[in-house]
Structure formats: C-alpha cells, structure tokens
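Need tokens for this chain, all 329 residues.
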Amino acid sequence: MRLSIEVSEAVIDQASDNASTLRHLSLTCTEFLPRARYHLFLSIVIQTMAQMLSSRDFLDAHPWLPPVVHRVAGLLIPLREDYSKDGSKKPIHLLDVVPVHLLIRFPNLRVWTMASGSPLGLSLHRSALRCYRHYGSRIHYLHLLDACFEGMSDFAGLISAFTSIHTLACSSITFRKADENDSSQVTLRSNTLSRHPPISTLRCWLSKLDTKTNIRAIEYLLRLTSHDGAMLHNLNVTFNTQGKDLKYFERLEKSMRSLSQLSSLTLVIDEDIPEILHSCARIVESVGRIHPRLDVQVEFKANPLPTLGSRISYLGPRASTVRPCLSDK
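Here are the structure tokens for all 329 residues:
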C-alpha cells in the first residue's frame, strides 16, 4: 500500500528533533527526502571561520538548500586578538565578519541567534553593524544568548541594527564594564552609522528575558518598548536568583510598570526560593494595578502539584486572575 504524502510527512515530522533518524529516512526513498531535508537543514550553526568560508562553496554545490534554511546560529567566539589604537589588545569575534552571503542567499531566513560564553567583551565594529542593518531586514526573531558585551552602548548598537525583529530573546547578557552611564542615557551608536532614522522604539510583539541578564540591559529594552508607537504585547520573564539582590528585582518591577501596550505577561519561576516568589508577587500586583485586564500566567518549572497552592498564595490579591501552570522542561 502506498502512503499519501500527508501521512509520510506526518511520520517524518515525528522525528524532527532526531538528526540520525532524519538522515536514515532521507536515504530510505526519494519521497522521504524533501521532508527529511527540510528538518535537517531548517537550522544551521556556524562555529568557526572555516565553516563560514566553506558554507559559500557548499551552497553553490547544493542549490536546493537556501530556501530550506530558516534559522542561523552563530557563536561569538574570539578568532584572534588585534591591537587597538591605544595599543591594547582587542578580541576579534567571528560575527565581526558578517556572513553577508548567508543573509542574502537564504530567502526564508527569519531567526538569528548569537551565542558566546566568552568573558571577553563583545564590541562589533561599525562596519559590521552597518551590514547587519542593511542585510538583516529578513530577521524577525533575534536571540542573544550568554553574551558578554564591552559596554551598554555595544549592546544597544547591536539591537538597533536589526530593524525588523518581531521577537527578541535575551538570556544571560552581561557587560565587561561594571560602571557605565545609566541605560536611560545610552545613545544608539548605530544611529550615526546609516541614513536610516534613529530607532526610538523597539517594535517587537514578544520579548523573552531572564534575570541572568544584566538589569541595565532589561531596563534599556523595556524603556524602548514603553514609548508611544511601541508594539510589545507579550512579555516572558524567567526568574532565578543567580547573583541577584533585592535591588535588582525592584528595578525590574519599576521598569515593567511603564509597558502601556502589554496584554500578556508570563513569569517563569525557575527556582523554588521565597525571594523569587515574593518578587514575582510584587510585580504581578504592581503591574496589575496599572493594567487591570492584563493576562498573567505564572509557570512553575518541575514543581510538584501538591505544593502549587502554597506558591500561588505568594501572589496576593491578584492570584485569582493568574493562570498557573506546571512545566517539566
């Protein structure tokens, strides 16, 4: 019996997160090949300069590939050290060399991920920011993960270079410079780098943040989305206490009060610690007073159901409007 295309694709979709199985399916028969390829090459990762350079030849040899790729992840690893004008050493990162050929040749590219893990401060060159602004207009989802920036202005410059993002996710964003001008005083360096008008608001529908991120970065992003014309409707914040004090959560609460367009707020409790629950309760209560119709969901990660009621009790008077849920992830 011959299976319909719909049934075959449904079977292959069940193995979408298993590369080994997808490879075997792609070799099984020609009918399985297109769908298996779709899942195998939906997302690609560029980790080294050699991979970036070889990708050009690979694309030339496989003309079917560019339309398949929707996501690119690049690691901000330092390639080498160069000397700046003052004689100090400055790390040169992989994505300082903008992969223009990837941005141009992938017509369906929508997700761009930058990850690092290196303690060296990231400060992209102006020419790199120009290229991201000019060629990154297809990017709708920008994810910055575990990245250390030289300073607040470097973070702001990179964010502003992507002008079409609908979803912004920032996780574990830090700064090498401990003391810098307050985030409210940061001028987007990239505004002076092109003929595009300055970005006064961040026009994205959804932001995903976590409290491993430096509070200055969160304040900056929420301030951008609080102006008239901003389009942030959904905010997702993951709470943990790693190296955070009470002042951090007080500043977070204050920043969230000004989100006039917000319609949905999701708070993810990553650790079962009273300080986090109290901070979450204050935010729910404070933001709820300003936005009484706000849809609030509190997610407790891997917490047993019998203790859920006691956790909800931390949320105070607004607990009746909160939709709690459990997650095994």
